[in-house]
Amino acid sequence: MAKKFKLTSFENTSILRKFTILYFVMSVLPVGVLYYFYLQLRNLGTITISEVQFFWLMIFIVFGIAVGFFSVRTILLNLVEVTSKNTDALIEILGPRKAEELRETDVNEVALLAKSFNEITLHLEENVRNLELAKRTLQSVLSRIGEGISSMENIDSFLDLILETVVEAIDSKSGFLFLHNDDGQTFFLKTFFGKDVSPGQYKSVGVEEEGLLSLVAREKRTVLIERISRTDPLANILEEPTLCAPLILHEEVLGFVVVCGRKSQTPFTADEEGLLFNIALQTAVAVENSKLNENAERTYFETISALALAVEAKDPYSRGHLDRVADLCTRIAHEMGLDKQAIMLLRDAAKLHDIGKIGVLDKILTKKGPLDRDEMAMMKKHPEIGESIIKPIASLRDLCDIIRHHHEKLDGSGYPDGLKNGAISLPTRILTIADIYDAMTSERPYRISYTPTKAVAHLRSLKEELDQQVVDALERVI
User: Fold this and answer.
1) What is the SS3 assignment for 209?
2) Could you tell me which of 431, 413, 388 has the C-alpha nearest to residue 421?
3) Which helix (H) or strand (E) element contains residue 232?
4) Does the N terminus or the C terminus of the chain have fewer Cβ atoms within 10 A?
């Protein structure tokens, strides 16, 4: 098909065409005027030059004009060639669509080059703004990660941070993180971001069911879903398009990272799919390391507990004391509204609160009667000894305060530091009262056990030493 002829205004025409037209006007018209005057003068008989001479004069002028035309045109061709090459290089940066827009609006090479430079300047300014935004975002992310690492006592807060970061980095609307249950066959919703959901509805999602997680578990790679099936177990929370990557470690799928929706109109890219897959792999390592650390911490705790039970076993009258005090502390803490983490901390401290007695002589621990002054001085060292035993273990350091101060009294008469009132934490006050109560209600070789009513009455009489609000809670749970 023949190329259609397109009319172009003189202002927007190419520089070579402008030069040709202007040069023709500036050269031919003066020659025509000269020829006209020659004819007029010849008719008047006042001209002294012959026609042959005038003809050669015109030939010389035309030749000079031609030489000037081609010389200047050669210079302009070089300029246009340089301009064209630069323009093409710049247009490669702007993209073919923008290049076509520029060519449609301008044929003039210089104007096209000027507009190309203008577009690139705007493009660079936008890139600078994006880089500044990315820098601020990266600083914010690193700050949040630093805060998460410094403050987290388990992996939960770190997983929240990972999910939030990946959703924002991939420009998605929401994200979900699934981890496998203990059965190894089903998965539960561990954390989510960008959408309010009920985690209770996703406590056991099976991969044998047809759906996104099933597909990703089989493929063991990042999967892009453009259309969500209504039969998918996650259909109510997923949004199109959806990216899902498996958390793989040693060929085992530990969970899934899912990002849904798109804030921009652009589709997910291959780079973003690769980024999500790599993040999922690193997350799998973090999850597994967390489990290993948790198991190691539990092993430490069980070892120390075994030592505490060994100390307890030396005295037949105190057997079961640690478990009873831990159970009573847990019930009092629930009654007083302490959170789950504080209750678990108090329970563990109760099970280890007498571990320092391992440094007390057996004859003192098993003595049938009251202790003398020197023996009591030795016995009073067991809170400090207990603290020194567990302090080197990082996972048990939070128990140090409770174990060291469980014999402190509100009036400052306790030991080893003589703390008063607000200096003694609530969990420590609970352990103190539970410890005293169990000791009073347990039989000793030098006295009979108290009844619960008599024991509570005795605790009431120590209102200057003991927190009576804790005593109230004790009375309600026994």
Assistant:
1) coil
2) 413
3) none
4) N
Query: Which residues 6+ apart lie within 8 Å of 315 measured at CB?
Result: 365, 366
* Domain ranges (residues) in the chain: 13-112, 155-293, 314-477
Determine phi and psi for 213, rounding to 5 degrees. Answer: -65, -35
pLDDT values of the chain reduced to their tens digit, one per residue, 478 residues: 444 445 555 555 666 676 677 777 677 777 777 777 777 777 766 666 777 777 787 777 777 777 777 877 777 777 667 666 666 665 566 566 655 665 555 545 556 666 666 766 776 777 677 667 656 655 655 555 555 444 445 678 788 888 888 888 788 899 999 998 877 788 999 999 988 888 778 888 887 667 888 889 888 999 998 888 888 888 888 888 999 999 999 888 999 999 999 887 788 888 888 888 988 888 888 888 888 777 777 777 777 777 777 776 666 656 788 889 999 999 999 999 999 989 999 999 999 998 888 888 878 877 877 888 888 999 899 999 999 988 887 778 889 999 999 999 999 999 999 999 889 999 999 999 999 999 899 877 667 889 999 999 999 999 999 999 999 999 999 8
d(CA 147, CA 158): 10
Q: How big is the CA angle at 262 (ends 260 and 263), to the nearest 5 degrees?
A: 130
123 burial level (CB within 10 Å; 0-12, 13-18, 19+): middle
Q: How far apart are CA 53 and CA 405, in angstroms?
A: 127
Please list the residues that pair with 255 across neighbouring strands: 179, 247
Q: Name the helix (H) or strand (E) containing 39.
A: helix 15-44
The upper half-sphere exposure of residue 383, i.e. CA atoms within 13 Å in the direction of its Cβ, equals: 22
Report whether 438 contacts 324 (CB < 8 A).
yes
According to DSSP, the residues that pair with 444 across neighbouring strands are 447
The helix (run of H) or strand (run of E) holding residue 337 is: none
Three-state DSSP at 449 gives coil
Helix (H) or strand (E) holding 166: helix 156-169
Q: What is the pTM of this model?
A: 0.51
Bridge partners, residue 178, by sequence: 189, 256
CA–CA dist 401, 382 (Å, integer): 14
The residues, ordered by sequence, that sit 6+ positions from 144 with a Cβ below 8 Å of its Cβ are: 161, 164, 165
Task: Please tell me the distance from the alpha carbon of residue 467 to that of residue 448, in angstroms, as a whole number.
Answer: 26
H-state helical runs in 207-250 = 212-219
CATH topology classification for 155-293:
Beta-Lactamase (3.30.450)
Name which CATH class applies to 314-477: mainly alpha
Q: Is 169 helix (H, G, I), strand (E, B) or coil?
A: helix
